[in-house]
Structure prediction request, 609 residues.
Amino acid sequence: MFNALDQVFVNALHWLVGFLPEALRPLVSSLLAVAFVLMVFPGIFAIVTVIERKGLGRIQNRYGPNRVGIPFTKIRLCGFGQFIPDGIKSLTKEDIVPRAADKVVHFLAPVVMLIPVLLAYSVLPFGRNMTITDYDAGLLFFFAVGGAVEISVFMAGWSSHNKYSLLGAMRAIAQMVSYEIPLILSAVTVVMIVGSLNLNNIVAAQNHYTFGIAHWHVFTPWGLLGFVLFFIAALAESNRTPFDLPEAESEIIAGYFTEYSGFKFALFFLGEYLGMFAISGLGITLFLGGWTAPFSFLIWVPSYVWFISKLLGIIFVFIWIRGTLPRLRMDQLMNFAWKFMLPLALINILIAGIWHFMDHDWLRWPVCSTLIVLAYVTLGRGLMQNQKLGKRIYRFAE
Amino acid sequence: MLGEQIIKGMAVTAKNFFASYVSKDRLTTVQYPEERLPQKHHTRQFPFLVYDGDDVQKGLRCVACQICEKECPPKCIYIIKSKDKKVDYKGQMQVYPVTFDIDISVCMSCQICVEVCPFESIKMNTEFELSTDDRFGGLLLTKEQLAKPNSYYQKVHPEAAAESDAVIAAEKAKAEAKAKAAAEAKAKAAATVAEPAPSPAPAATPPPAKP
Prediction:
């Protein structure tokens, strides 16, 4: 029965497709799967916008949105209907294109933003047997399409013909290119251990239990460090605070989408959040066991429930960090990426290698943990060494 | 160690997050239409006209002297004087405003009209929920909308209203004393001189400044 509940979507898809002639089945099956993704993840996006506003409000001791519920009734649903008026508002706003803008590129940028983000979902395993394409180079595909987002950011910044847009795009590209390296290097450790780029195989490798605890990669020393590095890099890749320099509203208005309004702005917003969900989903797949349960006595919970709850948990941490940390300066951002994250990611690859070759030896736990702590402390000291804290000295503007 | 302060900061925000659900005292905002903060002591929004008694026409203190109209910096007051006269609160015959409009979309709540008014007639209101869907007519308040009884003024600004009432009482007493003195003088003159003296003007006070 639990198995039936777990496979309800898969079986429903097979049942629906079964009515069609043989030739049409693969096409319709993939279209239905795509429609499912297009329904579920924008739905999560809608809920997350409300959760984010409420969460930030509570962190700042405010209520946050709590009015909009079911129309024409007194039911307020704690404000969780807020996304509907937000959506209607952004859809009905005037779409302004600057006169000096490069119209075609300006129009294409939000579309180019959304397409690679949605493509990234095609390889993520959302549940048992719930992957749209079982692709052998899934991880590579994910990073390849993820890299295409930078093009759209640059298109938006350049075509707007606005200095703030261009500044935002420059910052965004510098940041995304820098943080893509630790992101990929921290994912490489998983590929080294599992020996496959297929995300289904990566999940399957974590779907074992010892003493009732799952073999998630995050429960190993290299996996923990890899997950932390991946998480920080994912924060930067999705332009979230404290790495929100590309759209730093107090400095450069809204960064690369300053000149966007109405539905195009909504598309950028959607693309950004869907990108965040996709990269969180990848982090879950690589380190947090994908759709598997953390303890063996919980395997009766449907796999997609695990995936979605892990996703919401990660997003909650994203919101928590957004409510806590201030924005970094550009040089701090770059120092952090190149002087701390990159060496640590490289050391982590080494540690993953040591872990692999000390197979079935209990000594690998203390050895790898010590190496990680040593590397972290040394690099952390190095990063903090040249910090000059105190009153700021202006060289030219006295 | 690196990251130590981040953990501390995260703990602080987590504490705020959960405690805001537990203790209502932490929440600094109020749920406005249902919950309201008490208004500030000297709060003032837009002017209104004071009238004594129950009848707006009879009790309106304004005598259409148009000082406020002239002093108003953004020129948001519009007054038309009456042709006839009526008895004012001091018992004298005075003109009254036929039209008294204030455009609150123009008014800047400077209170100069209140300060220049010699008749304690125009005062500041505390009403602030004046939004309307008619941005021309809805924001142009007429005499009928502006007129509020003195009891209302005593309710919204008790101290200022008491001061204003004292001024009016003093003026009334002064006017009565003067009238009494004039009557006495008249009686005396009538008693001493056989022939009747030419009657003095209805009141000794000079008429308000005329444009």
User: Anything to note?
Assistant: Strands of chain B lie at 47-51, 77-81, 86-87, 93-94, 97-103, 122-124, 140-141, 147-149. The radius of gyration of chain B is 27 Å.
